[in-house]
Here is the input.
Amino acid sequence: MPTNSTYGRQHYMVKENGTMVTKPCDNHSPEGECQLTQLASIITRFTIHANLYGAVVTYLVSAFVGAYVIGFIVAAVRRKRSILEKAVGDRDAEDDPLLNL
Here is the structure.
C-alpha cells in the first residue's frame, strides 16, 4: 500500500547529526510517531484474516477446476450414440411385433 494512503501527510521529527530533521511517515518510522489512516487500518484488519480466506478460496477454485477437467475428459472419451441409436434404443428386431408380420 502506498505510504500516502497509509499515513497521509504526516511527518515526524528525528535528531540527526545534532539537528532536528523532519521526515515523512513510512513503515520504518519510530513506533508511536505516526498514526495509520482509517483506510489503512481497515485494510490491515482485513488482511490479518485474509490468509484463511485466501486458502479457502484457493482450495475451492482448485476443486472447481479439477471437477471441470474430469468432466471434460469424461465427455471427450465417452462414445456418442448416433441419432438412430437414440431413436431405436436397445430394441432388437425380434422384439418388435411389427417386423414379425
User: Anything to note?
Assistant: The chain has a mean pLDDT of 78. Residues 38-77 form the longest helix (40 residues). Residues 43 and 49 are 10 Å apart (CA to CA). The helical segments are 3-7, 38-77, 83-88.
